[in-house]
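Below is how a single chain appears once it has passed through the pipeline. First comes the sequence as given, then the structure the pipeline wrote out for it. We keep one example in the README because the format questions we get most often are answered faster by looking than by reading.
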Amino acid sequence: MTRRRRKKQGTVVSSLIVLIAILWGVFTKAGSDPNGSQFLRDFTGNNDEHVTNTISDASKAKTNYGGLSPTDYQKLANLNFKSGSRAYTEVNHDKSTLVKGAWKINRVIYSNLDSLNRTSRSNTAFLEKRNVANDSLRVRQYVEPTGWHYNHRNGTQIYNRGHLIAYSVSAGIDQSGNYDPRNQSGDQNNPKNLFTQSAYSNQKIQTIFEAKVRRALRQNKRVIYQATAVFRGNELMARGVNLQAVSTDGSLNFNVYLYNVQPGYVFNYNNGRAKVDRQMQVNE
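Resulting structure:
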């Protein structure tokens, strides 16, 4: 009986030692990263120091404010546009996967470019009324995102520098994603926020959804807006862009995928070059 009792006590002591070791490791790790900043950097690919200011709101970025899974983005990347089809399609029954309760502080989380210098990770904006921008403050754009080519088609505009987080809702947002009232011109030449987009997709389709966001902001609603350029494999031009938004009161809620296509042209998405194809039709 004594031996059994001693054996049992030894087992309890061993278990306590293991538990203490585990807890020590957890607290040591937390102590070295008290704000969870490494978690946010791993999720967004963002190594900038400013991310430490966002931890109270998004230290568990993926679970706290949502978004599509890598598998979902892969499915979108594999979609092939068929001539005559609609320029965009609903995702998740047109319902955002963002968590509306995640809105805490007015800011934008910009993700770093990937190894090919593409904006292939999501940018997520926590917006309010003061972010609606004055269009008169636009400046000349000079950033050349991957797959970029200048327009040389008899005056026909084919390419745009597409903003993931629209200029029109970026008043006061600096390139670190923080709100600065002195920066009313907004974010216009941020490489982390630009991708090569067809003029049609940018000017005819994306503006539809950006207008919905602006309307909600002007109604003094708080909005979470996320945009993700979707690339297939190592291609330098995005196949499309996923846009989704939700207001904190739930009145604004959409989730769409816009094909990166241009009527009358087809793209080589490997390098972004366009070729005339009069058979290519796009239904708005």
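The longest strand covers residues 223-230.

See the next section for the split statistics.
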